[in-house]
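From the shared-data thread, chain only:
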Amino acid sequence: MLHQVCRIVLGAFLALIVFAGSAAGECAWILWSAAFKPSILFKDILPSRGYKTRDECEHDLERREAREQACSREEPDTKYFFVCLPDTLDPRGPKAK
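Structure, as tokens:
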């Protein structure tokens, strides 16, 4: 079950990255973090931080992924995913009116 959830989340993030690749290079970039805890069916997607360039965002993403791997022993049931997206894309979907 956990592997299936991880695959779905990773697939969704990869799809967003494909769309983000066509974004203008001059826009701001947001590092999004997603936490999934299948044992209680919990998921949360939040913006972590904003950056002026995609390179800055990608650098922090790599740092956070490395830290997550080191900390995964403390919370083996919770999986974290990170993705950099232009500020024009929101992985949570459209806002309700």
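The helical segments are 2-20, 54-71.
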